[in-house]
Amino acid sequence: MIFITLGTVLPYDQLIEKIDIMKGSGVIGDEMYAQIGSGSYIPKHIKYLRYVGNMEAVYKKADIVISTCGAGTLLENVTQGRRIIAIENPAVTTGHAWELVFKLEALGCLIWCRDIKDILPCINEARTKKFRKFEPDSLDITTLKGLIEGRR
Fold this sequence. Notes:
Elements: E1 2-5, H1 13-25, E2 32-35, E3 47-49, H2 55-61, E4 64-67, H3 71-78, E5 84-87, H4 96-106, E6 111-113, H5 119-128, H6 141-151
Parallel strand pairs: 1-2, 1-4, 2-3, 4-5, 5-6
């Protein structure tokens, strides 16, 4: 099962619509479930709720989690070693979330989907990628600083 969480504050209708169309056309055959928050697009081919009460229970059932980069969602999943794809929501313009995503991607803890057009290749990659479990106590800030400076 693939679980998509769009968060509860900022909608990302383009993402849920694109995935819903792929599901409806058979491009994605997996069972899908979504938390759509305040979005206005209503999925036709994906089971959904506006807000999920027990996220942890859904995360445990999911083979892949797709998230719009909320720090809480990311950390809840990478600390468990779950398969997670973080996708940029163009409505979010602050840079701090991307720093966290960049660091977690560099450590091999998640896949960062930088553009909605790449969501299917990211889902396919998530099926086979070995995800590293994030261990907060073992984080070496100097190593991350070198990774970040190397990407500039």
